[in-house]
Design brief:
This protein is mostly helical. It is about 40% helix and about 10% strand. It binds 2-acetamido-2-deoxy-beta-D-glucopyranose. Belongs to the SPARC family.
Length: about 210
């Protein structure tokens, strides 16, 4: 699921970058970064053995991890160490500043450190660094008009495939979406519309103006 999502972001950034809407990309980045949960008022543990790890259900934004503080509250801090990699070239990522990072984790860890003004931050400007594409930075080929014209349809088709895969894994979570997917499977037009609506609603997580699908 995570890799699907990363791939989705990748495509999404391509769309957005293609459309020169950097601000929207920043909004998306901020959304991802700020999903840290507000800590709920945890009941004070009576018996230490019975207590589950306060971090267990505590989500942190990208580049951060949950750490239990002195008062036994879960807090989100910059990841202390990213997982070891096995040298897959596709683990590397290229940032919007055209710098290669060892992994997505390293990129967002650096961003987190720089935002917090940590001494470990390598470059102040990295407080605004974000993913440009997966893989090492390279000379990108010109996006031809032809490819641009194909893009919306390919994007929609790709989302359709993602939806299908999630349904197979029972990860679509809402029966309504499964039903809509079923409709889309039998109708070429819906096939290119429903998945886009689905993804939009999925990303539109804190809407003040939410409409039901
Ligand atoms: C980004 O870096 C790559 C590899 O160092 C280089 O080939 C490419 O020209 C750079 N792109 C830009 C836009 O500077």
């Amino acid at each position: 699921m995570q890799s699907l999502f990363v791939a989705f972001l990748f495509l999404l950034s391509l769309t957005i970058v293609g459309a020169k809407k950097k601000n929207e990309l920043d909004d998306l980045e901020n959304l991802l970064e700020n999903i840290d949960q507000e800590s709920k008022d945890d009941k004070k543990p009576v018996n230490r053995e019975e207590v589950k790890n306060p971090c267990e259900d505590h989500a942190c934004g990208w580049g951060k991890e949950c750490v239990v503080d002195k008062k036994s509250n879960p807090t989100c801090e910059c990841i202390s160490k990213c997982p070891e990699l096995d040298g897959d070239p596709m683990d590397k990522v290229c940032s919007n500043s055209n710098e290669t990072f060892a992994s997505l984790c390293d990129l967002y860890r650096e961003r987190c450190l720089c935002k917090k003004g940590s001494k470990q931050c390598e470059k102040k400007a990295h407080a605004k660094v974000h993913l440009e594409y997966l893989g090492e930075c390279k000379q990108l080929q010109e996006c031809t008009d032809d490819l641009m014209a194909q893009f919306p349809e390919r994007m929609a088709d790709w989302l359709f495939q993602v939806m299908r895969e999630l349904k197979k894994r029972r990860e679509l979570h809402k029966l309504e979406w499964e039903e809509l997917l079923q409709e889309a499977e039998q109708d070429d037009e819906k096939k290119h519309v429903y998945p886009v609506i689905w993804k939009f609603c999925d990303l539109d997580t804190k809407p003040h103006d939410k409409v039901s699908p």
